[in-house]
């Protein structure tokens, strides 16, 4: 810790400098963690519709009035599917992985335009990947059942990973406390303009927000770390 960090706070300007520095730190961490949040929350948006589709077709197969022939007619043909193979799918996975890692490392320093383009690229890659998976499933003997088996985990696992690792909550926490710091900055500016004398209370407000942040961070970490264990405990039959 530098001498500047240990310098006593005795004026509004000194306090505002501290608050602004902490807000900048929160903003930086929020941007750095945003890409993981974006990716993990977007994956189910692509997989859930496919799960609903295959589940609906699978359920219709049990309806006597419709029959298997009618169910088969509901499954659309997949153009260009003859060009899709396991090698193509593996290549897509590799491209998606490289893209995710590259953007994750560079996201914080990117411009808004670059971020938007990379989001678009990710969405296109996800659509291509989901389409390729569907195309490979399409020609299997038990395509409908296999579709349910494949897409169900792809819907659940991202949500479970996000809940366990806490990416979304971490990003939201940085955003929340950055907003609190901004609110405190504006409040102190108003106090200073109204001639309210600087006092210990102003410093305690700032310290209180930092303590709230650390407390929420600890609680979220514990909650996320033991999430799966807590769910398993709930499933156990009560004695």
Automatic annotation (TrEMBL):
TM ranges: 43-63, 83-105, 117-137, 143-161
UniProt keywords, alphabetically: Membrane, Transmembrane, Transmembrane helix
Highest taxon of the lineage: Bacteria
Protein name as annotated: Uncharacterized protein
């Amino acid at each position: 810790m530098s001498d500047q960090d240990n310098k006593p706070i005795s004026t509004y300007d000194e306090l505002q400098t501290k608050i602004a520095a902490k807000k900048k730190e929160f903003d930086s961490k929020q941007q750095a963690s945003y890409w993981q949040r974006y990716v993990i929350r977007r994956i189910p948006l692509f997989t859930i519709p496919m799960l609903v589709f295959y589940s609906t077709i699978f359920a219709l197969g049990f309806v006597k009035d419709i029959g298997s022939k009618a169910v088969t007619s509901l499954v659309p043909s997949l153009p260009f599917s003859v060009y899709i193979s396991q090698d193509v799918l593996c290549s897509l996975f590799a491209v998606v992985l490289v893209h995710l890692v590259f953007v994750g490392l560079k996201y914080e320093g990117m411009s808004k335009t670059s971020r938007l383009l990379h989001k678009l690229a990710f969405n296109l890659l996800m659509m291509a990947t989901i389409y390729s998976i569907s195309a490979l499933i399409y020609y299997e003997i038990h395509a409908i059942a296999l579709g349910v088996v494949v897409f169900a985990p792809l819907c659940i696992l991202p949500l479970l990973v996000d809940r366990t690792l806490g990416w979304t909550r971490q990003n939201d926490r940085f955003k929340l406390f950055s907003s609190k710091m901004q609110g405190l900055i504006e409040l102190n500016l108003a106090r200073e303009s109204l001639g309210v004398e600087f006092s210990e209370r102003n410093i305690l407000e700032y310290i209180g927000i930092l303590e709230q942040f650390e407390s929420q961070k600890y609680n979220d970490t514990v909650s996320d770390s033991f999430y799966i264990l807590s769910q398993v405990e709930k499933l156990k039959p009560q004695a």
